[in-house]
Write a structure and sequence with these properties.
The protein contains 13 helices and 20 strands. The chain has a nine-stranded mixed beta sheet with strand order 2-1-3-4-11-10-9-6-7. A five-stranded parallel beta sheet has the order 14-13-12-15-16, with helices on both faces. It starts with a strand and ends in a 12-residue tail after the last strand. The structure holds xanthosine-5'-monophosphate. Xanthosine-5'-monophosphate (XMP) binds next to loops. The site of xanthosine-5'-monophosphate (XMP) has 15 residues, from loops. This is GMP synthase [glutamine-hydrolyzing].
Length: about 500
């Protein structure tokens, strides 16, 4: 398959570069700027994009360009910092400015070149930079300038090297899609062969080759990711797949029953069920640190898997529904920092003892939903709430007790009922209740109470990487609040979280 390699220099828009390329039907992935290139299959890489980033190319300790990228002998496009890196590398001059140019600007471009083919010669683009290229390297030409004659894009067409100072990956550059398309199809001359249908065929082949006749164990949580992973692997290896549902005692109300019924009645796939809630809750007793909670849950998951795998005989492979975003957020993808150890990545101990199969690890959440549809899942299930592997453990701030789990289950159930009643469930990307560790004074009847505050979280998002608070209509949120304080014991206050991600995250821990 033709692939476009994106080097991560730290810009907050990097994931969007990958998305734009994939949306045009070409597979793309991101690696850190200092990634070991010998690990890549060079024949598949048909183009390279250098991302933007917050550094200054003139600083001694700034992230550098790896000259080995030229050995790929494929077209290269630098965006913002990426353009400045190329300019400096080939002997041009980059000037560091103290002020930042941020927002939309008009530029004049030369549409007599492959990169800007078919685009008007005066367009509005989105800028976010301090430094500028002020002198071109030898052999390079200006492709676009600002109204005050600053260099905004350049090329060395004979070497297939291009640079743009503006961000073509954001929606605020309306011609960005056309520029990507020109780069992919006119310059890199790639084939459009990234589609979910192709993905299914390729993955099934890959899974068969990887597993040979060995048996695979897969944790099922009832959520979309593990269900889609199960259907895909089942399609490849049938009954050599052992889906295993571990009840860790941190599930939503009725979760285990719903999940087991669905697999049995809808997909006719047998799921093995074990109740390990005591084991997990004992290990989590008095643990308050969010990362510790995640690591404990991750480790116990693997321990239980091993235990069950031995019972099931001959299982040698552990499959997981890990997504691309899980890998990036756990600091394993590009240049991003560790935000949270998602239980299925950072939580896994090194000495796994299994071979690991992660068939969804190249996909974003919305791509998994599309895949689920093609595998026969219905819309209501596909649009189901994402539920994290560590479950309610990361929605209860501080230490976890059975009483707190009960409180949260009831509150979350009410929230779900009311959101569905208001026909909002397919409008909100993710919504849930969390139990804050905050107790405050209230009054019920004539008595003083000193009970917990429940937080309501509802967000819009495309892939979970960024999110905005969803504005639940006031009358709905008021009803939710009133039902929770009236129906759930030990709760006397409901708070509505309206922060976006960043700076918050979606989950509370
Ligand atoms: P955050 O809190 O990282 O959440 O902004 C982004 C998305 O990821 C889900 N999430 C997880 N899913 N294991 C999972 O399977 C985890 O450890 C985990 N942590 C967060 C979260 O529900 C949201 O959809």
């Amino acid at each position: 398959m033709d692939k476009i390699l994106v080097f991560d220099y730290g810009s907050q828009y990097n994931e969007l570069i990958v998305r734009r390329v994939r949306d045009l039907g070409v597979y793309s992935f991101i690696v850190s700027y200092d990634y070991d290139l010998d690990k890549l299959n060079k024949d598949e890489i048909k183009g390279i994009i250098l991302s933007g980033g917050p550094s200054c190319v003139n600083d001694l300790d700034s992230p550098k360009l790896n000259p080995k990228i030229f050995e790929f002998n494929v077209p290269i496009l630098g965006i913002c910092y990426g353009m400045q890196l190329l300019a400096k590398y080939f002997g041009g001059e980059v000037k560091s400015n103290t002020f930042k140019e941020f927002g939309n600007t008009k530029i004049i471009l030369n549409n007599d070149c492959s990169l800007f083919f078919g685009i008007n010669n005066e367009v509005s683009v989105f800028m976010s930079h301090s430094d500028s290229v002020i002198n071109l390297p030898n052999g390079f030409n200006i492709l676009a300038s600002s109204l005050d004659n600053k260099i905004e894009a350049f090329s060395n067409e004979s070497s297939n090297i291009y640079g743009v100072q503006f961000h073509i990956e954001v929606n605020d550059t309306p011609t960005g899609k056309n520029i990507f398309s020109n780069f992919l199809f006119r310059i890199c001359k790639v084939f459009k062969n990234w589609s979910m249908k192709n993905f299914i065929e390729e993955k099934i082949k890959e899974i068969k080759e990887f597993t040979k006749n060995e048996k695979v164990i897969l944790g099922i949580s009832g959520g979309v990711d593990s269900t889609v992973a199960a259907l895909l692997i089942y399609k490849a290896i049938g009954n050599n797949l052992y889906p295993l549902f571990i009840n860790h005692g941190l599930l939503r109300l009725n979760e285990e029953k719903d999940c087991l019924d669905r697999f049995k009645n809808k997909f006719n796939i047998k799921v093995h069920y074990v109740d390990k809630s005591k084991l997990f809750l004992d290990a989590l007793k008095r643990v308050t640190n969010p990362e510790k909670k995640r690591k404990i849950i991750g480790k116990l998951f693997v321990d239980v898997f091993k235990e069950e795998a031995i019972k099931l005989n001959d299982v040698t492979i552990l499959a997981q529904g890990t997504l691309y975003t899980d890998i990036v957020e756990s600091g394993k993808g590009g240049n991003s920092k560790v935000i949270k150890s998602h239980h299925n990545v950072g939580g896994l101990p090194k000495e796994l003892g299994f071979k690991l199969l992660e068939p969804l690890k190249d996909l974003y959440k919305d791509e998994v939903r599309e895949l689920g549809k093609l595998l026969g899942l219905d819309k209501s299930f596909i649009n189901r709430q994402p539920f994290p592997g560590p479950g309610l453990a990361i929605r209860i701030i501080g230490n976890i007790t059975k009483k707190k789990i009960e409180i949260l289950r009831k509150a979350d159930f009410i929230l779900n009922e009311e959101i569905k009643k208001a026909n909002l469930d397919d409008k909100i990307w993710q919504y849930f209740a969390a139990l804050t560790n905050l107790k405050s004074v209230g009054v019920m009847g004539d008595n003083r109470t000193y009970f917990y505050a429940i937080a309501i979280r509802a967000v819009s998002s495309i892939d979970g990487m960024t999110a905005k608070a969803y504005p639940i209509p006031y009358e709905v949120i008021e009803k939710i609040s009133s039902r929770i304080v009236n129906e759930v014991p030990y709760v006397n206050r409901v708070l509505y979280d309206i922060t976006s991600k960043p700076p918050s995250t979606i989950e509370f821990e």
